[in-house]
Structures are given as structure tokens and as C-alpha cells.
Design a protein that fits this description.
Helix 7 links the parallel strand 15 and strand 16. By secondary structure, the protein is of the alpha/beta class. It is 26% helix and 15% strand. The chain contains 15 helices and 22 strands.
Length: 566
């Protein structure tokens, strides 16, 4: 079918499959009473010289005959070879040679637990199979079709005690086999940002649950990797942002095949991951971490081009619409993803590891004695709006601000502090190891944050986990990052007066500070890494066609943690 809608192929529908010759075989949604419909019209049948439209009712209500077999009706012979791969009953195979189709009939008998040696599994994990039952018959041409054949295989990643191709509603409890998962990200260690935290913790949790995970990230010459899950792709230094490495992978860098690819950025490695998912015919899950339209100033001329043509929005929409599932960290970003045409994005907030923060060893106090201790953390970039934090500090004469982070705007911020006359009351400490950051939160009295481009704002969660009240700009992802009036306050973007007013009120009222501190600890602990990983595994199961009514067990050994200085 020429029109293909994303997000289709759910339980109880026919399955879109692809022949080894590369011809796509469409599928349609079967409802009761529609099986074995009339002959299609000539205009719908015309492309069938290369294709066979195969439909079946997957053991749904009323779709199974008395013998439990499969009636196969092909409207047109096809030169392409379609094979149902899996545990076939060899004693009751029916060869539909004219169409080159192997259908499985009858009930389970001897040999049903043996794997078909003559059926190519197209990358399937060994030991998985398919049994086709019910009525297989053509009716009208389907209105839409997915892009690739993975919908067949997604229903096949069931454990050996369950039959593949069962409608999801009929499978009561199944376990996924351990998966080979590729997490593709254009930013990772030694970078420090929310994506790095998210990817590192997700990999830790997935590996603790028995899955094989590779974090595919750009190569950094100075980085000595000690994490066993990191695979580096060749990279070049980005001329417009010297601290950034732009991955430049080749085909030889991806000889390892994955059961599922999860991309976390839409740049070169994200594009490579999406391309490999199509090539290998495996599901592609994408997380929308970054509102990329707010970063166009890193490419000369792109901001003006985006303003007049919305080219970045269009390209991002094309990228995310092609994914089998899209995850966004906050509900506030749903409008952004839907504007790009993404259907049914899933909200899964990113978490941080509380124990790493709480167990941070003591550090030397960077705040001068007798001053109010303000803290902000993040990459020193234009879109983070640290200039507004400095403007707020200028109205708090008894406060001293500590800034953790590095970035291209550092020199500009230093000059801005000098112009405001507050340079002696600002300490730029640069990047600190993840294992030490908790100590700075422990010493701080108030956390300030002014970015209006966040998809979530993990530093807000870090601060609140450590009991530090927050005053931040409320925009996009940060709107759900603070419990207004309970863990801190959100103000409109760019409102320095409101930032100052709330900061002054909290610092002046000890009772208010203690109430907000207690509320911050409770609110910050809402999401744990394990809970987030379980939600992500639910998404994986949905695109693989595997129900997860039996949750994955917790790891017997302690989880590893993302430590930047290891």
C-alpha cells in the first residue's frame, strides 16, 4: 500500500511481512465477519504481480476452524517467497507452491518443539518460532502498512512455553528472552548532561536485568572507558563547538546486530541507529531528550532558515515519525512531539541515582563564610540562560553563587558577572565528577535554574533529592519538574524579578525553607532508575509484540552506577 501510517500493527491485526526478495506484503486489520471477503477491485489488484496480500485472523474470536488449522487464500500468485518461520508441525505442512508460501496446519504434534532447519530466521534469536492458525484469507486491499517485516518477528520473541502469533489479548503471561539492545547517543562520557545520565542509568538497569546492552557513542581521544557497555564510533571535532565530538561512523563499525535499537539523539549516531534498524529489520525506539529547535544557533545560518522554513522541525518530524515508538520525558513535551506528527508518544521521566548523590564524599566548602549558599548546575550554553541567574544574584547582596559546569558561554558569563559588579560573589568550579556532585547539593541552601528549553531538567531532580529547594523558570519540561509551593517555585521565562522575589523569601524564612526542603526530598524521590527501566521495557515489549504481564525480576546483585570519574 502506498500510504503507510506509523504506530499500526497492534494485537488482533494482520501482519505485514516481507519476502526474502524484498517485496513488501501488506496487511489489514481483520474484524469478525470480514474474513474471506469479496474479490478486490482491479485497481487494488494491479500491483499484486509482485506481491501477495496475505491476511489472517490470529486465533481471535470466531476466527479458528474446527481443526484449528489455517485456510490460506491468495488472490494472486507471487514470485516472492513468503515463509512462516518457526516451530512447524512437519507432519502436517501444506505447501502452497504456486505462491511460494509455506502454511502450517493441524495441531501440535511430534516435532513441534523442533526448529525448522529450512526456514531462514532473518536474524531471529534461536529457539523462537511461529505457529499459524485460524483463517488466512484475502479481502480488500489494506489501507496502510508498516515499513518493514519486524511486526512478524515481534510476535515471535516469546518464551518456549508460549505460541508466537497469538493475539496479545490471549497471552496471559510471557517473558521476553534476554535482548541485545543498542543505545545510540551522540553525547556520552566524558560529557556531562541529562542525556548522559539517562543513557548510563538505563544501560545499568537493563544489564542488571540480564540484557546485553551496548552504548554506542562518539570517540573521545582523552576518554579512558572503564564501562563494559561502551562502544565508540569514529568522530571528528565539530568546528563550531570545539568541545563537541561529531560521530562519523562507517558500516564496518556496526557488525554487531541488535534485537532492538534505542536512539537518544537525532544527530549522526541517531540517524545511523535508525538506518540500521531498517536494514536489520528490527524495532527502533527513540527518546525525545532535546528540543533540538532551540539549538539551531550552533549551526551558522540555521536559526534564520528554521524561522522562515521550519526545516529543523520538519526533519525532526520525519525522523521521529519513522520510529516504532517515541518516548518523551515529560507530558509538557507531548505537544512538541505531536506537532511533529508523532502518534501516541509515551511519557517516561528520566531518573537519577539517589544513592550516588547521597554517598558523595565531603568536599571543601566553596562558599565564603557568612554568605547565603546558591547553586546552579549545567552546561554553560546560551540556551541554558545562566545570564538570568547572574542577574538574579545581583539583587541578592548577601548571597554567593557556585556554578558547576563547563561550556562555550563561560567567558561570556564571566564578563557578564564583571559588568554586573558581582564577579567576587560567583565561583565557576567547572565540571565535577558525578560521585562528588552530591556533596555540593548537600552544602547548598537554594538551587536556581533559568533554562526555558529543557525537556525535563534532571538537575532539578538532583537538587530536590538532596533536599534543596528550587526556584526555576517554568517552561516545557521543567513545568513538571517542581512541585509548585511544595518543593520550590516556578516563574515565567525571563522573569528575573520573580526569581529574585522567591529566592529572597525562601532565604529569609527558615520555616518556609524547611518545609520546602522536606517537600523537595519527597518529590525528588518519585522516580527511581529501576522503575524507569521497567517502563522502558514495557515499551520494548510493545514494539516487539511481547506482553509483559510477568515483570522482570530485580537483579540479585547490586546495580552498577554511572560514575564519571571511574
Amino acid at each position: 500500500s502506498p500510504s503507510r501510517e506509523p504506530g499500526e500493527g497492534r494485537a488482533g491485526q494482520g501482519v505485514f511481512v516481507e519476502s526474502p526478495g524484498g517485496h513488501h506484503l501488506s496487511r489489514r486489520s481483520l474484524q469478525q465477519g470480514e474474513v474471506g471477503g469479496g474479490a478486490p477491485s482491479g485497481d487494488l489488484m494491479s500491483p499484486l504481480s509482485r506481491r501477495a496480500h496475505v491476511f489472517w485472523n490470529l486465533l481471535g474470536e470466531g476466527g479458528r476452524n474446527q481443526q484449528g488449522g489455517a485456510d490460506l487464500c491468495l488472490r494472486k500468485r507471487s514470485k516472492g517467497l513468503l515463509e512462516f518461520v518457526g516451530r512447524a508441525n512437519r507432519n502436517s505442512e501444506a505447501q502452497v507452491r504456486g505462491a511460494g508460501v509455506t502454511a502450517v496446519q493441524g495441531t501440535k504434534g511430534p516435532g513441534a518443539d523442533e526448529e525448522r532447519p529450512d526456514a531462514p530466521n532473518r536474524g531471529m534469536p534461536s529457539g523462537h518460532g511461529a505457529t499459524v492458525a485460524g483463517r488466512v484469507c484475502g479481502g480488500r486491499s489494506p489501507p496502510a502498512a508498516p515499513r518493514h517485516a519486524s511486526h512478524v518477528r515481534r510476535r515471535m520473541l516469546l518464551s518456549s512455553d508460549a505460541s508466537a502469533f497469538l493475539p496479545l489479548r490471549t497471552v496471559q503471561a510471557s517473558r521476553m528472552k534476554p535482548l541485545r539492545i543498542g543505545l545510540f547517543t551522540d553525547t556520552f562520557l566524558p560529557d556531562q548532561n541529562g542525556i548522559v545520565t539517562s543513557v548510563g542509568l538505563l544501560s545499568d538497569e537493563l544489564r542488571a536485568r540480564g540484557h546485553h546492552v551496548d552504548v554506542v557513542a562518539p570517540f573521545f581521544p582523552e576518554q579512558q572507558d572503564t564501562r563494559p557497555d561502551v562502544r565508540r564510533a569514529p568522530s571528528v571535532r565539530y568546528i563550531f563547538l570545539p568541545t563537541y565530538r561529531l560521530a562519523w561512523p562507517t558500516r564496518r563499525d556496526f557488525e554487531q546486530k541488535y534485537d532492538l535499537i534505542h536512539t537518544h539523539t537525532p544527530l549522526t549516531l541517531g540517524l545511523a541507529g535508525a538506518r540500521l534498524a531498517r536494514k536489520w529489520d528490527v524495532p527502533h525506539v527513540a527518546t525525545y531528550h532535546t528540543h533540538i529547535e532551540a539549538y539551531t544557533h550552533y549551526v551558522p545560518g540555521l536559526t534564520l532558515l528554521q524561522k522562515h522554513t521550519r526545516v529543523v522541525t520538519r526533519l525532526m518530524g520525519l525522523y521521529y515519525r519513522r520510529a516504532d515508538a517515541v518516548i518523551t520525558p515529560t507530558a509538557a513535551m507531548l505537544d512538541v512531539t505531536r506537532e511533529m506528527g508523532v502518534r501516541n508518544p509515551v511519557v517516561i521521566p528520566t531518573s537519577v541515582e539517589p544513592e550516588v548523590l547521597r554517598s558523595a564524599p565531603p568536599v571543601e566548602n566553596p562558599w565564603p563564610a557568612g554568605t547565603r549558599r546558591l547553586l546552579t548546575v549545567g552546561r554553560l550554553a546560551r540556551e541554558k540562560r545562566f545570564d538570568l541567574v547572574l542577574d538574579t544574584l545581583a539583587h541578592l547582596p548577601d548571597a554567593h553563587l557556585v556554578i558547576l559546569g563547563e561550556g562555550p558561554e563561560r567567558e561570556h558569563l564571566v564578563r557578564h558577572a564583571e559588568r554586573l559588579g558581582i564577579a567576587p560573589r560567583v565561583s565557576f568550579l567547572g565540571v565535577k565528577p558525578w560521585t562528588e556532585i552530591g556533596a555540593y547539593y548537600r552544602l547548598a541552601e537554594l538551587f536556581l535554574f533559568a533554562s526555558d528549553t529543557e525537556t525535563q531538567g534532571l538537575v532539578l531532580q538532583e537538587a530536590q533529592l538532596m533536599g534543596v529547594p528550587v526556584v526555576a523558570v517554568g517552561a516545557r519540561g521543567t513545568l513538571s519538574g517542581v512541585a509548585q509551593g511544595r518543593s520550590g517555585y516556578l516563574v515565567p521565562p525571563g522573569d528575573v524579578a520573580a526569581l529574585t522575589r522567591h529566592a529572597r523569601a525562601i532565604l529569609a524564612d527558615g520555616q518556609l525553607w524547611r518545609r520546602l526542603s522536606d517537600g523537595a526530598r519527597a518529590f525528588g524521590a518519585t522516580w527511581t532508575p529501576g522503575g524507569v527501566a521497567e517502563r522502558v521495557l514495557d515499551v520494548y515489549a510493545s514494539v516487539l509484540g511481547v506482553p509483559r504481564e510477568i515483570p522482570f525480576p530485580e537483579a540479585a546483585s547490586p546495580r552498577s552506577t554511572l560514575a564519571y570519574d571511574r
